[in-house]
Amino acid sequence: MPPMRTARNRKPPPDGFDDIEDTLLEFANRMKDAENESHEGKKKQESVWPIFQITHQRSRYIYELYYEKEAISKQLYDWLLKNKYAQADLISKWKKQGYEKLCCLKCIQTKETNFNSTCICRVPKARLQEDQVIECVSCGCRGCASSD
Q: Subcellular location, in the record's words (predicted)?
């Protein structure tokens, strides 16, 4: 049986966590509000859209701090990923060409769609009709193609 994680054997966060802790707490508060929000009048999938969006924003915040601004250390970045403050799989996709603006991993999974293709939000807006408004069924994204 694996040992239980208690406060005694949990490692403290690395240096620099204090600088971003307020922002992460703000994301956590927004997440609690989104989870407690009423689901009345919404479709089943629409009720989880705010949760996907907050998770995306928090992951993007950590990604930009490490890769673009270089404001946090490698140790802190690894610690944040290990403690599930950001989605490591989503961040790994953002580093690849063509996926820089990806909103969630469900949008590129072909098994989730009717025609075994990616989500409609991955289609560049230049290829759609001008009046056509698109919205992802799984996360509510209105377009995350890198060419937009």
A: Nucleus
